[in-house]
Every structure is written in structure tokens, then in C-alpha cells.
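> tool_call: predict_assembly(chains=two)
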Amino acid sequence: MSLDDLKLRVQALISPRRVERELDEELTFHLERDTQRHIDNGLSAAEARARARVRFGSVALAADQCRDARGTGFVDGLARDILYAFRTFRRAPLAALTIVATVALGLGLVAVVFMVYNVLLLRVDAVQSPGELFAVAIGQRIGPDNEPTVVFARRDYEALRRETSVFTDTFAMQGYAGPVEGRLARSALVTGNFFQMLGVQAALGRALLPEDERSAAQPVIVLSGMGWRKLFRADRTVIGRSVMINAAPHEIVGVMPDDFRGLGITPPDYWAPLAQFRDDPARRVDEEISSVEIIGRLKPAMSREAATAALALWASRRSEFNTLPGRQTQVWLIPRQGTLSADDIATQLAFVPLFFAFGLILMIGCANVANLLLARGVSRQREIGIRLSLGASRRRIMRQLLTESLLLALAAAVGALVVSQLFLERAISAAMTTIPPEFVQFVSMLNLAAPAADWRVLTFLVAGAVVSTVFFGLAPALQATRLDLVRTMRGEVTRDARPRRARQTLIAVQVGASALLLICAAIFLRGAFAAATSDPGVRTSDTLRVSIETETRRAAILQDLRTHPLVAIVSASSRTTRGVVETSVPPARMPVDQLAVSSEYFTVFGLDFVSGRGFTPAERTAEAGVVVVSQSLARQLWPSGSGVGQVVRLDAPQSASAAASSLPARTLTVIGVVRDVGSASGTSSRSVYLPTGPESPGTWLFLRVRGDLAQARQALLERLTGLDPVFGVMTLTNGMQTALLQIAFGLAVVLAGLALVLTMSGLFSVLSYVVEQQAKEIGVRMALGAAKKDVVRLVLSQSLRPIGLGLVAGGGIAAALAIVLMATPIASEIPDIIRVFDPVAYATSLLIIVTSCAIAVSVPALRAARIDPIATLRRD
Amino acid sequence: MARHTVPDLLPGTLDLLILRTLQTGSLHGWAISDRIQQISQDVLQVNQGSLYPALHRLEHHGWIEAEWAVSELGRRAKYYRLTVTGRRQLAIETSEWERMSMAIGRVLKLA
């Protein structure tokens, strides 16, 4: 492109009129000069002008070709197309509105998924050079699994900071639930260099400083934008105010900006210095139990691999990390930028079905719009025919039709933004009301909020609008411009221009997509029912789980529980960890789940002994040298005998729980074999149980209660929050699983409902339109003696095939997806209560679709039957 | 219509004719078509509807450039002039044409 040419294009953009005027002047001059020549040859002025015009041909066409030849035509044509499009919209505002609304709905739903995706995986936190930030994870290789097992204490952080040099700086962070003025709040305890290292400034007041970590300093906190609004209603005078946290006054020194989330997906409510809480006597944070996350800023010259290697060398020399002799120590550096790690393929994959399901709605909507445009294309045949015969190229008209579609789609993108925000807000509030009340306080601490749209979402919407345009606009544009000019000009709507096949394909696609979504909804619904009624395999109907956060109050709480009239039995258990069991006769190694339990645990859960005995109250530490194993483990290790009296070695990683701590490899005698826990509870059946007692810090308490479970929970909660402000009591019924399935069902039902309504309205309008178009033909048939029955059959036959095809395709795709799903590793993650091949779900959904289609189809069919042949024939 | 009694230009030859006509100096659109007609002794008549698109296309390619000047009628007209790349293009197209016409001539004579 030459410089002049560029100038011309820019000119065409800035002042299209000047370029137009010059073109016009050039062509006019030619005509005048030609006229002059004819006059010179002796013709009269009028005749000369006529002769010149005939010789030149269509000036408008030549001008158009000139514009095309130099590319300024594009800009110019676009402006004209847009104007023309707006005229069309004004002429048929209802059609335009329908299209915008339909596409906005579909695009909005897809945007919802993208917004969630954006928040989880793309939206990096507003900190300085987030790409350099990595969390350190260390583990020893145990069994076939290879995952970080080491839990860092603060002294590990100090050691890493002192002894390694791969990071420019490192901070430690610990999540903590500490109520502010009695209101539950989530905080992050951080080392004093946290804010400086991330390079963020406070929006109000100041951020935390290294000085704040000194024990002598007055306890301080910094609020997040979220916490500021939630806890203090965005009051600007909070700076300097003193609030009670853990019965101690803390001064609020600052509020952080809204876009800073402290490297999390959602922000905590406040940040406080880590050391300050360590020294807090009310919460004697046990160095063994409390775990910190270590996050470093990689030195600019350091590669991730080199840093990993250097840290691995350091870690292999540190005895605290190497509790299992002879095992290789591994180090991971995990990107920490306020999103889920991009290395996490599973999360990325989880979005595929979501995008697919929500995308189906958009596709059905687009199919509806395409149908509408096809119908309008027929009614616009005359207009398009005239433009074609005036010399407009087919490409030109297609461009114009596509411009119209694109404008509508862009308007829909704006609507989609509104739709997605509304949907997310509604979905979050609906989810909050569905989950069991005992979980609500925890979920509300997550600080979920409908995310604001950022540039990525906007880009996605514009791209979505363009793709939708291709989906719904291309086929109708192709169809509308494929015209027999002569017949169109004569006013005949040509038969072959009736885009029958395109329409039928669209119907089939819609029915198929609705079937797919309905089947999913039905499977989730059945799953939710099954979860609500399923047998968890252990006794949960009168069991409560108590978690104690303030360990100093454990004894008092235990005392209180033991004397409480509603509590029958108190038992305890640690959290489940991984271990490896080794036997010498016969020699075998087997990965197992290990947990430490108190003697009453088996009674509370109704786990009967197959042989041997349980722990005695005296056996309450691992030093007792006894172990209870699950039935299937015993069967696998000792196929011939009962297992009682056998000796095993148990290898365990550094334990997350103090209860089962410290002996790296223990020799234990099996004293009992207990029946397997049912699979529904999620515990694998290869388990070993070590002894512990309810007094051991870090254990959960499991209570057998008397009377109604929910009432007992409430009573205990009210009684004991005085002793431990973050005291938690949970039921063990699978309320959460049921709720999650209900949410999934709700989502699928909303999607499937939308799909069905869109499909029905599409079917209805298409068939109504077809009947309208064929009125003459139907009239002739009736005049020739066709019965009403035949007419109905004629109309129905046009929709039966696509509907049938759609049903088969939808059911087939659902089954195929299920097969693919079961073949992937995800299959093991799907709870057993979800049966992807549930025949009842399939049958019900298909029945619903057939019924709705029958309703949508019968109205136009009956209308066709009522056609008066005389009136129709007289109409033309 | 009289236009159809004279043979249409071979496709692609219009560009060549325009470039060649402009070799001797700058001309406006009408003059170009008039010159082609005169020199070819009325055998070649430029379809005037396609003349201007062709001119604009050549300008777009950068082979010719335009400027406004006062014409023989006493009013502004757009005059086209060959550029350096246009001259090169003319040479290429001329030799192409000669090769082609020679080939056709041979076939007609010898086949």
C-alpha cells in the first residue's frame, strides 16, 4: 500500500464525503467531455447527453466498482450498510428485538461460564510482577501417589529465608477464621513484609509493616475492600478504631484497594501480622499443627527449574522434612498469582462440559434466530431481488445482511452483560439458600460475589457476538441471496428458495440439544434424590462432629460435652492421612488411609468388629503399639487368617495431626478387624486405625446425641460458642452432597427449561410460518378433496422427521458423552449415586420433549386444517 | 446495441492499454479511452463502465498516480500519470503480451 493510498483510506475514514465528491466529479467530467465530443460532431445538446449516457452505462455501478477497486468502498459501504440496517430495524422493530433478546440470553449464559473461568484461572491479582510469585511445596515420595506432604511451620519459613537464595524475598501466610466483634470473618495472617513484597499500597490508612510483627507492638489489622464493606459498611472513619478479635483489642490501621485479593481467588476480610497471633495466649497456636504457606518472589535471573533444584537440595538436608528415611524429597514451585494454578489441567477440563452445556443454549437461540431470518429472507426476496437486478453483487448484499446480523449481535452482547450479572447474582443467592444452614457461615466467609466485568469478559462478549453472527446470520444470508432474479421480479416466491432443508436441520439441532440438557437435568435430579436417601455406610443419624479451634479450651469443652444431657457418647478421631503398611509374613506393601481414633469411635459410628477387639480407654497413644485394620485390608494382607495378632510396620509421612505423630516407622500388633465403611462416605476401605484420645489436640470429636439431631446441634452450638468462638458442630448426613446435586439439578433444569422453551417457540413459529406460506397449496388440496386429517398429516410430516432425528441425536450424544466420561480418569471422581446411564432419566426427558413438541406443533397443524379453501384461492 | 458489434477487450488487456497510453504523458480518463480508440482505429472501444474501476485499481496498486488539473473544457479534471513502478509493470505486461500473441500467431499459422 503506497503512502498516497494510505492517505486516501484515512481520508475515506475521516471525510468520506470528500472522496465521494471527487469520484463523482471525475465521472461527471467524463460524461460532459463525451457530450462535448458529440456536440462537436454536430448533435443537439440533448441528444449528445443521451448518447454519452448510453455509452457510459450505469454511473452508479461504475462508482461502486471504483470504490471496491480501491478499498475505500469498504469503509464507505459499511457506513451505508449500518444506516440501511437501522432502517430495517425501524421497519420491523419486533423482529429485531426478538433476535437481540434471544442472542443476549444465550450469550449471557455463556458469558457466565466465562466469568467464572476468568475469576478462577485468568484474573491475576493486582500485585507487582505476579509472574515471579511461587508457593513452595515439599513432599516425600510415598506409595504410588506423589504429592506435597510436608506441613510448614513458621520456623521452616525462617530457615528457608535464611538458608536459601533463590528468592529475592519470601513471606509466610496462614488462613485463619477469627471473628471481628463477634461476626465471623476470614483473615490471612501474614509476615510483616507481605504488603511490601507484593508492592501494594493501602487505599486508606497504611498497609502492614515489618515493625507490626514485633510482639511489643500494639496489635493491628488491615481490612480488605471486601471486609471493609461487609463488616464496617465502607465507613471511612474506621482507621484508628479498635475492634475485638479473640477477646483482644486490635487497631485497624488501613483498608486495602478493592482489586487486591491477597493472592486468593476471593479476598479475606482482613490481614493481621502472623507473629501477633502466635503470641496470643487465647489461641496457643501449636507450632506442630499450625501450618503456614511459604510464598517467594523468584530472583529475575533464576529459572523455575533451577530454583526447584536448589530448593530440593536444601530440603533433602533438612531433617524436619525427611521423616521417612531413604525416600526422595521432592520440591514443587506452584505459581501463586491469585488464580488457580494453570498447571491444573483438571480444573481446565471441568470447564469443557460447562461451556458446552451453556453454549447449547446459545446454539439453540441462534438456531431460532436463523429460522426467523430464513423466514424473513423469503419475505425480503423482492427487496433483495431488486437490489440484485440493479447490479449489486451477491457479495455486497451478503455483506449488508451480515452487517445487520452483526449489529444485532453486538446489541445482544450488551444485553448479555446484564444477563450474566443478573444470573450470577441470582445463582449465588439461590445456592446460599440451598446449602444446609450449618455450612452457610463457612461459605459466606468465602466472600463470594458476582465478579465485575473486566476487559477479558468484554473481549469474550464481542468475540461471542461475532461467532453468533456466523451461527445465525450466515446460512440465512446465503439462502436469501440465492435467487432466481426473473421470477422474483415477477413477484413469485420461488419454491426452491424456501429453505426447507436448512430449517429442518435447525429444528433437529434444537431438539437434540434440548434432549441432551434435559437428560443431564434428570440425571442430577435422580442423583440428588439418591444422595438424600442413600445409606452412608456408617451411623450418622444421631452423630455430630465437633471441631475445636481454640485448643486451650479443649479440656473445658470436653468437660462440658461429657456432662451435657443431650450427649450420650464422646469419641475422637484425627483427620485421615496416607500411609503405607508393610508386613513380613507374607511380605507385602500396601498404601492405606490411616487415622487415629479413640476407643468409643467404633461404637459411635456403629462399626462392628469382625474379629478381635477395639482399643481400651488406656490405649490412647501410638506408643501402645496396637492397631485396628479394616476388613478388606485384612483380607488382602492375610487371605487365609483373620489377621488378629499379626505384626505390621506402618510408614507415615510427617503427620498433619499431632495425635498420630512422630514415630516414623512403627511396628504394631493388630488387635482387631473392623467392618468396612460404606463407599458412599468417600473413605477407601483399606484403612488402619491407631489409638488416640479426645484430649489429643487437633482431633475432631464425634458425639452420639439424644433426640433430634438439628436441635441437639443448635443447643450445643449455643452452649459452647462462649468457650470457643469458632467452635463448629456439623451433622454428618450428606446434606452437602444433596445440596450440591440440587444446585447442579437447578442449573441443569434452568438450562434445559430455557432450551425447551426456545425450541418450542422455534418449532411453533416455523410451522406457523410454513402453514402461512403453504396456505395456497393447502387450499388447492382441500378444494381437490383432501380431508382435514390429510392436511394435518401434511403439516406434521414436515416436523416429525427433524424432531425424531433430534431426539435420537440428543439421546445418542448424551450416552456417548457418558461413555467418554466413564473412560476418563474423572470417572472415579463421580459419586456412585450419579448414574450416567439411568434409563429412567433418559426416558422421562425424551417423553417431556415429545410432549412439548406435540403441543408446539399441533397449534399450527390445526390452524392449517381450518383453512378455508375458497378464501385462500380468492386471495391471489 | 452498437457496443456489441466491436470485439470486447480480452480480459486483462485493459490495464496494459491504459499503462501504455499513459507512457507518453498524463491524461484524464476520457482522453485515455479516446486515445485507445483513435490509435486502434476504432477497433478497440473501452467499455467506459469498466475504465474508471480499472484506473482506480491501478492507482491502488501504485502503478499510476493522479492529480487534479484544469482541462480543455476549462474545469477541473483528474489527470493520471505513470509512476516508476508503473513503468516497470508496463514493461512486464508488454513482454508478456508479446510472448502470448507470438504464441497464438504460431498456433494459427502452423497448427
